Structures are given as C-alpha cells and as structure tokens.
Amino acid sequence: MTKQILIVEDDPAIREMMVFSLANADFQVIKAENGTQALELLQQKRPDLVVIDWGLPDFSGLDLVAMIRRDDVLKDLPLIMLTARAEERDKIKGLEYGADDYLTKPVSVQELIARINAHLRRAQGFEENRQLDYQSIRMEVDSHRVWVDEQAVNLSLTEFKLLKLLLQNSEKLLSRERILNHVWGHNATVEDRTVDVHILRLRKALKPFNKERWIKTVRGVGYQLTRC
User: Fold this and answer.
1) 2, 22 in Cβ contact below 8 A?
2) Which pLDDT band, with edges at 50, 70 and 90, does 113 fall under?
3) CA–CA separation, 201 vs 196, rounded Å?
4) How far apart are CA 164 and CA 108, in angstroms?
5) φ, ψ for residue 90 (rounded to 5)?
6) d(CA 191, CA 84)
7) CATH fold for domain 3-124
8) Confidence of residue 102 (pLDDT cuts 50, 70, 90)
9) Average of pLDDT values for 87-108?
10) In this structure, what are the phi and psi dihedrals at residue 129, rounded to the nearest 5 degrees?
11) Are 74 and 102 in contact (CB under 8 A)?
12) Considering Cα of 124, then 128, then 134, then 139, what sign does the dihedral take?
C-alpha cells in the first residue's frame, strides 16, 4: 500500500520540490503551508509520517510537534523536523519536543527519502510483528516478554516500557524529557531523576548478560541504546 506523507512547509519552492520528489519516489503526498492547515488535514486523515518545518508562519514547528504528541490518535506518528538551525542545542530541543528525526536545510532529497523509509520500516515492523529486536535483545510486546541471549528476563512494567522505547529508537539519542513523556505521559508529575533511577534498574536487569553498557548516558541530554 502506498504510504502517505504530510509535508508542512511555508516556503512554496521547498514545499513543491519535496512534493515532487516524494511523489516520484512513489509516496502519496499531502501538503500544508502552516501549522493550522496541517492540524486540519491531520483531523481528516492520519498520514503515515509528517515532515515539519521549524519556522512556520502561524506557530513554530516545535509547537506542532508538541500538539501531535499530545493527541491520543496521532501521538505515535513518525515526525521528521526540518530547520536551518544547525546548532546542537537546537537539534536537542527538537528531539525533546518529540521529533523522531532532524534534518538541516538545505535538505538532501535523497537523504530525506532514506530517513522517511527508515522510519516507516520501523513503524510498520512494530505494528505488524509486535516484536522488537536489537542484537541479542528480543521483546514480544503483546505478551510483555523479554529475552536476552535467548534467556528470559523479568522486568517491571515501567522497565518494560522504558526498554520498549529504547528498542523502538535503537541507535538514536533520547532526551530525558522525551522518555518521561513516552513512558510516564505528558501530564505526569515526575522529575528527570525518575528516568535515571529506572535506567539504573534496567541496567541492573541486563547486567548478568553484560548488556548494561549498551544503554549509554549522554551527559546533560539523555540516553541511547547502542553497542558502539
């Protein structure tokens, strides 16, 4: 089935270039020139992925990302943010608001298509198989079972949710705020330290298999599941 991509970009030239390129890559493309129009389209039909420009004319792309993440129907949509801001703190801010990926303008169309395909594969695999894998860690989502090196591991519900998020985003840096929002919910009254405590518990569960080192701490930012 053809995947539908929503492009939210106020610059007509950039917007039409992306629409043309994605259509040639066999995507069905819908477009919006501002955040308000994007929200109207999202209420009509749920696309498979959204590409959002940071600098929209009515409100920022960050605000649009936050609105989507608060919506029960749309909150799991893959979101890719585009911006002319190249500094690391801006990238971190985009990820903290809930973007799944971040590309700096001028955007390479080939890279954008590659990123879109990667996120769609991840989303489709999660929906269809309900199984998540990273190296020798395997999770069956529906049965709440986890194996490491083919041995069953007992996790609390929170540790399970935390590991699931890490597996869904393996090799990607996750901010503490994003982890809090996904595991505990946007309205939860918990502190950043709560994430650190549960990361420690999850590492303890993985330690007998020498996999605790796979959960990397990025000081001042968050965590990443990676063997590197």
Assistant:
1) no
2) very high
3) 9
4) 31
5) -70, -40
6) 32
7) Rossmann fold (3.40.50)
8) confident
9) 79
10) -90, -25
11) no
12) positive
Among candidate residues 167, 174, 168, 171, the one with its CA nearest the CA of residue 192:
174
Architecture of domain 131-225: Orthogonal Bundle (1.10)
pTM of the model: 0.58
* CA 194 to each of CA 17, 198, 199, 205: distance values in angstroms, whole numbers, following the listed order: 44, 6, 9, 17
* Residue 179: both structure tokens together: 């982890």
Domain borders along the chain are: 3-124, 131-225
Burial of 193 per CB tally in 10 Å (0-12, 13-18, 19+): exposed
Angle at 210 between CA 206 and CA 214, to 5 degrees: 75
- 116 alpha carbon, distance to own chain's centre: 12
Three-state SS letters, the chain: CCCEEEEECCCHHHHHHHHHHHHHCCCEEEEECCHHHHHHHHHHCCCCEEEEECCCCCCCHHHHHHHHHHCCCCCCCCEEEEECCCCHHHHHHHHHHCCCEEEECCCCHHHHHHHHHHHHHHHHHHHHHCEEEECCEEEECCCCEEEECCEEECCCHHHHHHHHHHHHCCCCEEEHHHHHHHHCCCCCCCCHHHHHHHHHHHHHHHHHHCCHHHEEEECCCEEEECCC
The pLDDT score that the predictor gives to residue 11 is: 92
Q: Record the tokens describing residue 125, joined without a space.
A: 């695999």
Q: At what angle do helices 157-168 and 176-183 cross, to 10 degrees?
A: 120
